[in-house]
């Protein structure tokens, strides 16, 4: 899921949460210290919390959780392994707070033989789309045009049509010889995305697209107008192999990586829609200037860093000046990940100053192992270290995305632990974006209480970590990426569908990617 402002990601503008009055001092005991100790070199070291030790309060909470889940008909009994909660026995905001554990609702996670959630890093061997102009550098386009028997400068003309005028319509390419236009377009612009559905909010400032790829796979993009910018949330994979228990996209695993051009085409098509007046909402310029997508967030379907090469090539296409590419600012492009550590380090060395966002959602491995299955491969501390390395290498402050889920990850001790872990690496390198979920009665994937949310934010801010609660966009049209595609294309007739169509109210509609 993209950010140029000191404390804002571009797709989700900050919402100032109400200040809680009369908050009591809470610094007397610091249960998170149980996890940390100072090593000889003065660095903070993380101890793994003890498992299996529970007190009476926790045991009662576990029992209540189990009964509640069983009443809701989701999952079997818990296995008795407890998530450590060092604050559970203390008085304070976490006293009597239950610990809800992540669990897929309404579907079953694929698992390995030893019962762990299955992770897919490699795409299956499937057909790939034909090579498109946007897959190629300008030099490669020139070679290709020459191979078609035309002078190389035609590549520049074609590129200008695509990246500047956002068209691949031969009728509009009047500077090309009429006799060769059709051939050129057929060779350089194979069809990539067919629009299947388009959902629009009432005021028109958010548009969600469902696209069909050449092989029938479905992906989504969401276009959002904010004051002073237009953001597009793009997909990078059809399906996803990361198997997060809250995510519609991951339910059926990874279909395939999207090509560079398929990723870029989402931007070009969005620009077409904007040019046609398809994005409503108030324009800051009063509607006089040509508009286009200004910000990109890789927070749609798929794990961008699992499709590393093509995602990076697409970012280069976005930032390369026209007619090589779209001429966007790298700072306005946010690459988000659930924590593929080697790829984060590689990204830090690319020399493209994109904004980087780590979807952390839990600072402790016990919870994160279940919430974000890839945590079994790279632990929370390794992911935070890689995020810090990104800051060191690029000078770009990174975002930690943290969806607040009631009684699952919103405990005050987790805010403290997160603050400690971030501050242990340094100051001023990170900001945290807690993301509110929608209230979803009956689901474990529901929003935190307002006072709990405020406490979480206050603790981070008090610890010196800039923290801003996000507003979320597109929920009325299933803003959670993967939801439309998960529904399939039963209603796929290309018509405009009412904005609130298709809400499932289950975990399938939860988007924790920030
Ligand atoms: S949340 Fe992101 S990484 Fe996890 S399964 Fe969904 S798309 Fe993949």
CATH superfamily of the largest domain: Aldolase class I
Q: Could you name the CATH class of the largest domain? A: Alpha Beta
Strand order of the largest sheet: 13-12-11-10-9-6-5-4-3-14
User: Which fold name corresponds to the CATH topology of the largest domain?
Assistant: TIM Barrel
What ranges have pLDDT less than 50 throughout 5 or more consecutive residues?
Answer: 1-55, 68-82, 489-514
**How big is the Rg?**
24 Å
What would you note in describing this structure?
The chain is of the alpha/beta class and 514 residues long. The chain has two domains: 436 residues, Aldolase class I (TIM Barrel); 56 residues, DNA polymerase, domain 1, CATH 1.10.150.530. It is built from twelve helices and 14 strands. The strands form three sheets. The protein has a ten-stranded mixed β-sheet with strand order 13-12-11-10-9-6-5-4-3-14, covered by helices on one side. The chain binds iron/sulfur cluster. The site of iron/sulfur cluster has 12 residues, from loops.
Brief digest:
Helix content is 27%, strand content 14%.
């Amino acid at each position: 899921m993209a950010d140029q402002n000191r404390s804002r990601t571009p797709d989700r503008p900050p919402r100032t949460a109400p200040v809680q009055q009369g908050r009591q001092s809470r610094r007397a005991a610091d249960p998170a210290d149980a996890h940390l100790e100072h090593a000889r070199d003065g660095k903070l070291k993380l101890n793994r919390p003890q498992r299996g030790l529970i007190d009476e309060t926790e045991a009662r909470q576990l029992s209540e959780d189990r009964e509640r889940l069983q009443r809701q008909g989701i999952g079997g009994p818990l296995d008795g392994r407890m998530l450590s909660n060092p604050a559970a026995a203390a008085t304070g905001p976490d006293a009597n707070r239950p610990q809800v554990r992540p669990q897929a609702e309404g579907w079953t996670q694929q698992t390995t033989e030893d019962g762990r959630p299955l992770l897919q890093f490699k795409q299956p061997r499937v057909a790939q789309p034909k090579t498109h102009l946007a897959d190629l550098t300008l030099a490669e386009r020139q070679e290709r045009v020459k191979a078609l028997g035309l002078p190389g400068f035609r590549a520049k003309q074609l590129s200008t049509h695509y990246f500047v005028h956002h068209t691949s319509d031969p009728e509009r390419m009047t500077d090309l010889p009429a006799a060769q236009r059709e051939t050129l377009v057929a060779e350089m612009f194979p069809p990539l995305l067919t629009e299947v559905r388009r959902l629009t909010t009432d005021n028109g400032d958010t548009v969600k697209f469902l696209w069909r790829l050449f092989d029938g796979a479905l992906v989504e993009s969401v276009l959002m107008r904010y004051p002073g910018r237009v953001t597009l949330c793009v997909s990078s994979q059809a399906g996803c192999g990361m198997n997060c228990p809250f995510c519609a996209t991951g339910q059926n695993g990874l279909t395939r990586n999207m090509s560079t051009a398929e990723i870029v085409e989402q931007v070009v098509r969005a620009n077409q829609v904007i040019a046609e007046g398809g994005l409503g909402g108030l324009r800051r310029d009063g509607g006089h200037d040509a508009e286009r997508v200004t910000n990109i967030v890789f927070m749609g379907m798929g794990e961008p860093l699992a499709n590393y090469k093509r995602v990076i090539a697409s970012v280069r296409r976005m930032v390369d000046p026209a007619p090589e590419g779209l001429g966007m600012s790298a700072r306005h492009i946010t690459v988000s990940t659930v924590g593929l550590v080697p790829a984060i380090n590689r990204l830090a060395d690319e020399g493209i100053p994109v904004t980087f966002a780590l979807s952390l959602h839990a600072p402790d491995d016990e919870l994160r192992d279940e919430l974000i299955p890839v945590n079994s491969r790279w632990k929370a501390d390794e992911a935070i270290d890689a995020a810090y390395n990104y800051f060191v290498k690029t000078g770009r402050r990174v975002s930690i995305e943290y969806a607040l889920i009631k009684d699952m990850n919103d405990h005050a001790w987790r805010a403290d632990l997160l603050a400690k872990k971030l501050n242990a690496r340094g100051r001023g390198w990170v900001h945290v974006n807690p993301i509110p979920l929608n209230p979803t009665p009956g689901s474990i994937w529901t929003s935190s209480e307002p006072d709990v949310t405020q406490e979480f934010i206050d603790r981070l801010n008090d610890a010196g970590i800039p923290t801003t609660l996000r507003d979320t966009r597109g929920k009325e049209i299933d803003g959670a990426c993967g939801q439309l595609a998960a529904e399939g294309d039963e209603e796929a007739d290309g018509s405009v569908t009412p904005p609130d169509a298709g809400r499932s109210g289950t975990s399938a509609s939860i988007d924790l990617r920030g």
